[in-house]
Prior knowledge:
2 copies of one chain form a homodimer.
Chain A: E1 17-21, H1 25-36, E2 40-44, H2 51-68, E3 79-82, H3 85-89, E4 94-97, H4 103-116, E5 123-125, H5 132-135, E6 145-150, E7 159-164, H6 170-182, E8 186-189, H7 199-215, H8 221-230, H9 232-238, H10 240-248, H11 253-261, H12 279-293, H13 298-323
Parallel strand pairs in A: 1-2, 1-4, 2-3, 4-5, 5-6, 7-8
Antiparallel strand pairs in A: 6-7
Helix pairs in contact in A: 1-2, 9-13, 10-11, 11-12
Amino acid sequence: MDKNKTVSPGSPQQVKRICSIGAGPIGAGWSAYFLAAGYEVNSYIHQASEEASLRALIDNAWISLTELGLAEAASLDKLKVTTDLITAVQDVDFVQESAPEDLSLKQTLFKQLGEILPPNIVIASSTSGLPMTDIQQSCATPERTVVGHPFNPPYLMPLVEIVKGNNSSQQAVDWLVAFYRHAGKAPLVLSREIPGFIATRLQEALWREALHMVENKEATVEEIDFAIVNGPGPRWAHLGPCMTFHIGGGEGGMAYNLDHFGPALKLPWTRLEAPELTQSLRDELVEGCDRQAAGRDYITLLRERDSGLVAVMKAIRECNDKASGL
Amino acid sequence: MDKNKTVSPGSPQQVKRICSIGAGPIGAGWSAYFLAAGYEVNSYIHQASEEASLRALIDNAWISLTELGLAEAASLDKLKVTTDLITAVQDVDFVQESAPEDLSLKQTLFKQLGEILPPNIVIASSTSGLPMTDIQQSCATPERTVVGHPFNPPYLMPLVEIVKGNNSSQQAVDWLVAFYRHAGKAPLVLSREIPGFIATRLQEALWREALHMVENKEATVEEIDFAIVNGPGPRWAHLGPCMTFHIGGGEGGMAYNLDHFGPALKLPWTRLEAPELTQSLRDELVEGCDRQAAGRDYITLLRERDSGLVAVMKAIRECNDKASGL
Lengths: 326, 326
């Protein structure tokens, strides 16, 4: 039941011009990404002095975006840089806001955008932690405002987490999913506002364990990076943690894994205590992996995992060889 | 100060024959890896009935090992499979034990190995959690016993964590590092026995946060894998968590990152509480990243990061296209 005001944005496939707010790595990264996807981009920067570094960031991103493949219509000439917000949002079909992570600053910005932008234009915030419920508080048209949190660098990582605030409309979310997907991103809609969203929560758990380990002289900074790069990293890049354990469990999959390694959840293998491994939690994990396996048998999954790992590790090896001049 | 008995193994570069104990994915994975590196391998299995599945696992691993490049001397014909432990260790230069994770079983095995193996042959245990101090308890020659914990699949992931028990000698550790490195692995020596070693601790923190999220309906199994694969996964595969944040911090690096995002350590972005970000912890992280940067400036690091991410993501994209028959 959506009790919020509705919004009727245009077709997400027909977006032509985008306003990207912010001159930092996230704002510049989005600008570069949208340009590479063929859009016209109005980049709003706070001060004229930021233009040089904005353009340098975009030029750097362009190298990688070219390697990954530009859209036919892509051109750096489609970038306009301005310090005037009204000019920046003129005739745009979508706004991606990547201003500094300061709640009152974002609230002021969303109040202004609410006034100067036609009410059917969706506004996404790149915030990595502030709830949209707070950001949209002074906005007169909050129904079209949604979190669209990218992962750094936004011109390379596909993930964008989408989170509603209390006054966001479902139409804005649906529009944003369709738009990001059309633009080549991998949108992930959260069912509710949780601190850190999904990816950052998982990343942060690992990061905090790493900080504890450095603090307690259990591992150095170098050892932590070395362990991840040569151990779980490539598996996560290719499969994620759940499917890694599903395939690691052999023919028995996640069910075998949980039944076998369940007791390890009681061991002090991290400072984070595990939840009780109830039957329902176990079943949910098993079923989630089965859904992702989608009927592929064990040997097929095994071969796909191995091909993925070989490809990832070959790619990294070649990059490192190139970087070290081999 | 090493008060333990010393051990004088032969040259790690002159190992010819290896005994690999265990018919499961770890034991079979090691056997395949050592065969691909050109060694003769005596594979000890508990029951003759395990031979078929052992050989199937090795055959599967061989496909990937061939793609990564076999040693000139590599041959599947150098594999001998036996259920007799004395035959298995005959004339071997090294033993890699990957028996089931059962302490009393491993204690019995190490007692036997201690009796039948010449005292200068190093024995490594693949255990992912049992302390060598416990495993070596009934072994008459514990000084040559060390944990050598691989990451699954051991024929693909380079990491091997090396941990001494109370009665292990430093020579055995040094020998093992030199041997694994010669054999193409990425050894990581722990300064002391900590539960879960290094990589598993970090992996386990992420995994437990994931379990909590599923339990609390914050994310589904699919959403967790999707978030990691499209977000932090490729960065971890290429750089690890610390260098990812170092480069993400821009010109200011890890120092900027910690000074800027330090307050986020107090936020409930995971269920794991962070340590106090003291000046000394901050400095240790900054210095660790600077050591890894080894004089490369920001723009060089940025270009290397981007090349790595482009390569990893292209590799995964091609694999997924192949798997889905595109």
